[in-house]
């Protein structure tokens, strides 16, 4: 039995509320159990210097955690500078979103997706990717409605889920008590078509077999399919 009482392949309750901020071109609040992340997408009619005069657009991401998102208060990174963890996660979110982006169709503009963790209970990077796609989708819809782009630059959904081995059992969508004690921990980023974007897996004091890796991939495929369904419902 999992600490949460969930079955081995059972996801946490998922909800995605859209239009939660006034000014952002796209926004949502994604809740995966007790992990809550605010995602906003902002459109700018400019691109980074390395993309100028290419006719192509760019999507990037920023990620952060509010001081009391965790059990004890953290110092604001604005004061301390970004940690290596934060930089790694925001690069992951950006890569994941660009994996389903047609840069030519977007045109020479940038969309920045900000992911701010309000409350953390494991899987914050996965929630940021899943919610970040919804915010990006809504921002792209605005561009298309205004006639600023004619071809949809988003080629598919992208979502992410954590999986791991806890007490010898393979689990999907780890919460903090499971994640902190898992012998094997992994994050899986997949498209709506089931193609892999990125897999981050590591042994935390115990090695794992190829069969276990395949089992975790199967769980991740089922988990991301549920997240894509939630994305579809949110933007409907």
TrEMBL record:
Phosphate binds at residues 85, 123-125. One of its GO terms (biological process) is rRNA 3'-end processing. InterPro entries: ExoRNase_PH_dom1, ExoRNase_PH_dom2, ExoRNase_PH_dom2_sf, PNPase/RNase_PH_dom_sf, Ribosomal_Su5_D2-typ_SF, RNase_PH, RNase_PH_bac-type, RNase_PH_CS. GO terms for molecular function: 3'-5'-RNA exonuclease activity; tRNA binding; tRNA nucleotidyltransferase activity. It comes from the Bacteria. Belongs to the RNase PH family. This is Ribonuclease PH. The gene is rph.
């Amino acid at each position: 039995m999992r600490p949460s009482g969930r079955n081995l392949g059972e996801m946490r309750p998922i909800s995605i509320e859209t239009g939660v901020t006034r000014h952002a071109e796209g926004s949502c609040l994604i809740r995966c159990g007790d992990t809550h992340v605010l995602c906003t997408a902002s459109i700018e009619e400019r691109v980074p210097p390395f993309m100028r005069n290419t006719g192509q657009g760019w999507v990037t991401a920023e990620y952060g955690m509010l001081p009391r998102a965790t059990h004890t208060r953290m110092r604001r990174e604005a004061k301390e500078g970004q940690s290596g963890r934060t930089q790694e996660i925001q690069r992951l979110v950006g890569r994941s979103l660009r994996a389903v982006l047609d840069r030519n169709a977007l045109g020479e503009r940038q969309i920045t997706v900000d992911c701010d963790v309000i409350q953390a209970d494991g899987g914050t990077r996965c929630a940021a990717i899943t919610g970040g796609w919804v915010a990006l989708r809504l921002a792209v819809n605005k561009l298309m409605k205004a006639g600023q782009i004619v071809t949809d630059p988003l080629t598919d959904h992208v979502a992410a889920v954590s999986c791991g081995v806890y007490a010898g059992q393979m689990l999907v969508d780890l919460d903090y008590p499971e994640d902190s004690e898992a012998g094997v921990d992994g994050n899986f980023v997949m498209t709506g078509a089931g193609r892999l974007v990125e897999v981050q897996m590591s042994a935390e004091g115990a090695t794992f077999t190829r069969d276990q890796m395949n089992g975790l991939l199967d769980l991740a495929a089922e988990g991301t399919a549920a997240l894509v369904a939630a994305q579809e419902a949110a933007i409907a």
